[in-house]
Amino acid sequence: MVVDHFIPSVTTEMIDWWWVNMEKGYELWCPDEHKAFRWEIKPPMNGHISAVQIATESIDYSPVMDLRIEWVDPNIGTEEQKEFWTYEPLLTAGTTGKQPGTKAFVMLSHQWETVPGGCKMRSCMHGISFQEDFPERDDQNWLKWIIVKKEAGKMKLITQPIPIHEYKVKPGNRQ
Known about the structure:
Blueprint: E1 2-8, H1 12-20, H2 26-29, E2 34-41, E3 52-57, E4 65-72, H3 79-84, E5 90-95, E6 105-115, E7 118-125, H4 139-142, E8 144-151, E9 154-161
Antiparallel strand pairs: 1-7, 2-3, 3-4, 4-5, 5-6, 6-7, 8-9
C-alpha cells in the first residue's frame, strides 16, 4: 500500500524534526487513531536507525493496541524496494533479524522531499498485505488509486486505475 501526501508550508527539516520528537504530539497526527507514544530506544544523534518506538494506535478503527516499531537500515531492503525509494530523506522500519527465528526485512518506509509550496511524502507498507487464502493477484479490480474529495461538505471516495506502465517498478509475483 502506498500513500502519497502533499504537506503545504512544511519543509523537509520540519519532518526530520518530527521523526525524532514524535512524543511531543503524536496524537495530533491522527487523533482518532493515534492514542499514545513512547520511545523504547530513543533515536541516535543525526539519524533514526536503531530507534524503537511504542505507538498505541487503533489502525483503521480496530481495537487499540501497542505497536513496536524498529527503525532499520534501508540497506536491508530488497532490490525492488530500493528501486521504489526515490525521495530523500528515507526512513525505514522493520526488523534487523537479531531476534531468534527472525530475518531482517523492511515492512514500512517513509520518504519525503521539498517541492514548491511545501513537502511531498510517500508512506509505503511493503508486502504485509499478502494473504495465503488469496494467492492470486487481481490487479484489474484492486490495483487502484483511492482519491478522497470533499463535496458538499462530505467525504467522497473515488478510484482511478494506476498507470502502472509509467512506473519502473511493477507489481510482481508473490512467490
